[in-house]
Amino acid sequence: KEIQMDPQPIFNRTHGLSKRNLSQYDARIAAIDFALAHDDGVSLRNMDQAQVILLGVSRCGKTPTSLYLAMQFGIQAANYPFTADDMDNLQLPAALKPYNNKLFGLTIDPERLAAIREERRENSRYASIRQCRMELAEVEALYRKHKISYLNTTNYSVEEISTKIIDSLGLNRRMF
Fold first, then answer.
1. Name one GO biological process term (predicted).
2. Which of 60, 62, 122, 143 has a CB 3.0–4.6 Å from the CB of 79, allowing a cystine?
3. What is the pLDDT of residues 25-46, one digit of tens each?
C-alpha cells in the first residue's frame, strides 16, 4: 500500500540457499570467520589472505568495520590495534610491513575517543583526553611516515567508513 503497487510474487523461487548462491554464502562465511580470527591482532597468520588490514588505536572502530566489510561484501578484513610499544620510533610491526598495500588506518577525534573509552574504563588514564590526544597524534604521524591512507571516523557510520575503504583501496565488493 505504501508504494502503491500490488505484490508480484515470483513462483518457484525461495529465499534460502540454492546451488547458485551457495558459493556466495560460503565466501561470506569465510570472510566473517577470517575477520573474527584476525580481530584485534589476535592472529597475524595468513595475513597474505587479507584484502585489507585496518589499523588504529583502541576503540576507533576497527572491529565493527572489519565485520561489516566481511558480512556485507565478503571482504577478508583483519585489524590490528596500535599499542604504546608499537608507537616507539613510529615503526610498523615487522609482521605488517610486507602488506603495506593492504593497510588502511582509522583515526577519530580525541574528544570522541575519550568519551568512548570513558564508558569502558571510567576515570582511567586510558580514557583521559591527554592520553587520547597523544595516541592519535602518534598514530597519525605513523600513517604519514609510512604513506598509509587513513580516515577520521568521527562523523561517519560504519557503512560510510566501509565504502570509503573499498573505494580507496579499490577492493572488489560482492553484493549478497
1. regulation of DNA-templated transcription
2. 62
3. 888 999 999 999 999 888 888 9
Range of the domain at 162: 22-169
The CATH number that applies at residue 124 is: 3.40.50
Predicted confidence (pLDDT) per residue in 124-135, tens digit:
999 999 999 999
State mean pLDDT over 69-97: 90
For residue 85, being part of any structural domain is answered with: yes
| Residue 53 domain-assigned (yes or no) | yes
* Dist. CA 165–CA 174, nearest whole Å: 14
Q: What is the pTM of this model?
A: 0.86
* Total number of domains constituting the chain: 1
DSSP lists the bridge partners of residue 100 as: none
C-alpha cell at 68: 561489516
pLDDT for 11 equals 61
For residue 57, give the amino acid letter.
V
